[in-house]
């Protein structure tokens, strides 16, 4: 993500609009394709966990596993959808939708937007390990409550800082992505702890990606659509999602220090 935002900054500075429209926009996709192949190569060499190896026969015998997640683990599905809704909105808002919104709706300079996003992304990377360590100390649930509650409170005021000046953009991306690390630093653990091993891959894969498709996939469309009505309506939408996620997270059991089933 950091490479992508820095590349966006470089392209916005080095190329004019005509060059970007004709061929410059293809460069990030080509680079992403290379990284995709590298990722595929890396994943082929990963070993499965002992617990998976012990239960994969049981998993293969499951009939209608997707239905089983709903009938046997409805709370897990609901919780996963609840906090993933906000997580994916945070991701697509700060890493994707805000860039074009700031340029088109708030007349921000594209180079300034990518510069601020690059700084925010560097902070996002730097905070992953400290926030993960903090969750091991204070618990998953309190950290997620702070993330969702703070996002509900600050996302609308933050949106008013989007504009031509780089200072306001830095505050928006650093605060938004800084808060988001409270979730991303522990997201794999939180999701894995919701389902038993034999249903974990499907339980997370299906419901997580469906939620991402619905809420993340529509984020760029909605920020454009809502922007034509009100400059802050989309951010109120994110704030409502954050409030819902907060209520869902309140129902989560604390799993700090426990071992996966």
TrEMBL record:
Bilayer-spanning residue ranges: 24-42, 80-98, 110-132, 144-163, 169-195, 207-228, 234-252
Cell compartments where the protein resides: Cell membrane
Major facilitator superfamily (MFS) profile domain boundaries: 1-256
The keyword Ribosomal protein is assigned to this record: no
Entry keyword Repeat: no
Membrane disposition: Multi-pass membrane protein
Top-level division of the source organism's lineage: Bacteria
GO molecular function: symporter activity
InterPro entries registered for this protein in UniProt: H+-coupled_symporters, MFS, MFS_dom, MFS_trans_sf, Sugar_transporter_CS
Keywords: Cell membrane, Membrane, Symport, Transmembrane, Transmembrane helix, Transport
Pfam families associated with the record: MFS_1
Cellular component, GO annotation: plasma membrane
Family designation: Belongs to the major facilitator superfamily. Metabolite:H+ Symporter (MHS) family (TC 2.A.1.6) family.
Cited PANTHER family: ALPHA-KETOGLUTARATE PERMEASE
Name of the protein this chain belongs to: MFS transporter alpha-ketoglutarate permease
Organism this protein belongs to: Amycolatopsis mediterranei (strain S699) (Nocardia mediterranei)
